[in-house]
Structure formats: C-alpha cells, structure tokens
Design brief:
298 residues, alpha/beta, 44% helix
C-alpha cells in the first residue's frame, strides 16, 4: 500500500473513474419509513442508523472511491454513537473505501495533539480528517505530524460552502488580503512540510473549498496548486457539476467532490422518489459520479 495519503486518494479516484465522495450524515428522522418508529428508544434509533449506514456503504462502495462520515450525527447518541462512528469507519475501510472523518476539530498545542491522536492516529481511525485552521499553525501541526508518520490526510477549512461564510472569511487586512486567502497561503506553506508531499505532486495536507464559490475556488487553486481540495456544496447546497469543476487543476485532478443529503436521502426527492430507497440511493450515486466525471474530465 502506498504510504502517502494524497497518492492513495488519487489512485482510488482513478480506479473508480470519478472524483466523488458520499457523505454519511445519518439523521434518524430522515431514515426510510421501514427503518423508523415514532416510539423508538435511543438504542433502537442507533440500531436503525447502523443498518442504514451499512446499507449505504454497501451500495456506494462499487461506485465512489471515498466516503465522509460526519461525526456530529453519531455524537448525538453520546458514547454509543461515537462507537458506531468508529464502527462505520472500520466497515467502510474494510470495503476498500477511502474514509474522510468529518470532525472539523480545532484547538491549540497539547489539546490539538490529543485530538490528532484520538481522531487520526493508528489503523482504526479514518484515512483523513477535516480540521479547523483558524486557531493558527499550532492547531494544525499535530495533525500534520500524524499524517506524515501514519500516511494519513488532513483537510483544512479554507473556504466553506455555507451561505454565511463571507461574514468571517471575507474579512480583509490593511493590504486587502481576505482571511480565507491568508488561510490558503498558510495551508500551502504547511503542505510542503517533510513527509507530506506525494510522488504525484500533491500534499497530504489538503483544503476544504466549497463549490458554492466557484470563482474563488479557481483563485484558490492558483494559491494552493499542491493541495487536494475536498469540495462540499454539490446538490442540496445548490452547486452544480460545473461549479465543482473550478476546484480542479488543468489536468482534471486535485479535488474530490462531496455530496451527502442529495445521495443518501435521494428517495425523498425527484426523480428518485418512485424507487425503493436502496435503488434510489444507488441511482443517485451513479448520476452524481457521472455528472462530476463529465464536468471535470469531459
């Protein structure tokens, strides 16, 4: 197995033929009717979520190279939910999927080091992790150290896909440089650290860059040519495949596009609502992968 996360991710994308990721955001209230009950206890809800996650993984494993479990949906159930999160991570890895843990952890010094050990170190954790870089480099360095040592990846929040992102990320300094541009330059610099650059020219320290800001994504690609971009915003948040294409380099490489709700809850929307929920998820995942593949690779 290749020891560099960036190289492994690019290999997985080539194997599946499309640079896409399915987010695993299991909300009990949105599960299919045959998995839900109005009187379900928390343990029964967790059992249903376990079944749902396993089925989703089985469906998408042959279609997409990457999945991204969002830890918050599991943490709602406290300790048992956290255990299910790691169970889901292990199951996905056993299926040959690259797993990005969406935890957005961020702190400083020894606390960041503890988060890195808890969420990224060792074989039973995700292949990569999302982190909040807005506390400075000492909040990112511990994750980079684990990534270099264990062959893992890190995605720093740079330009997020939410509507209010500009309230903070567009703040400018006296020279007119925006906050997200500063974070991008910081990320690019850290990504050159020893043990992070892969043979294909990309770093295992990547960036989260929302598809809902395509012009800025293209600008950030110039600032961060060696960063892998994790691109949220497709589907439920309103971005289309052409918006996502702006995050890729001139060779159609360097990014992975995520869709969560639009895929895993496809049975709740057209044109998939007439299908059974498993068929709806499969059809939506295939359409998503094809859509991005055509927009990026032609």
């Amino acid at each position: 197995m290749n020891d560099n996360f960036a190289d492994r991710l690019l290999e997985a994308i080539e194997e599946k033929g499309s640079p896409v990721c399915v987010g695993i955001d299991p909300s009990y209230e949105r599960l299919p009717d045959d998995l839900r009950s109005d009187s379900a206890s928390p343990d029964q809800q967790l059992s249903a979520i376990r079944q749902f996650c396993q089925t989703v993984l089985e469906i998408v494993a042959g279609i997409v190279p990457v999945v991204k479990p969002q830890s918050a949906y599991f943490e709602v159930y406290r300790g048992k939910g956290v255990s299910l999160y790691y169970e889901t991570v292990r199951l996905a890895k056993d299926m040959g999927l690259v797993v990005i843990g969406d935890t957005k952890r961020g702190d400083i010094g020894s606390t960041a080091e503890a988060y890195a050990k808890a969420h990224l170190a060792g074989p039973d954790t995700p292949d990569a992790l999302t982190v909040n870089g807005y506390l400075g480099t000492d909040g990112i360095d511990p994750f980079c150290e684990v990534a270099a040592r264990d062959g893992k990846g890190v995605f720093v929040l740079v330009r997020t896909s939410n509507q209010s992102a500009s309230q903070t990320q567009d703040f400018s300094d006296a020279a007119g440089q925006k906050f997200y541009q500063h974070i991008a330059r910081q990320t690019a610099s850290l990504g050159d650290n020893e043990g992070l650059l892969g043979q294909r020219g990309f770093s295992s320290l990547g960036a989260v860059v929302g598809a809902t800001y395509p012009q800025e994504a293209a600008e950030l690609r110039e600032i961060m040519p060696r960063q892998l971009f994790l691109v949220p915003g497709y589907g439920a948040q309103g971005a289309g495949a052409e918006d996502c294409a702006a995050a890729f380099d001139s060779n159609g490489a360097g990014a992975i596009v995520n869709a969560s709700r639009s895929v895993i809850y496809a049975y709740q929307r057209e044109p998939y609502g007439r299908l059974g929920w498993e068929e709806a998820i499969e059809a939506s995942a295939r359409d998503f992968a094809d859509d991005i593949q055509k927009a990026v690779l032609g």
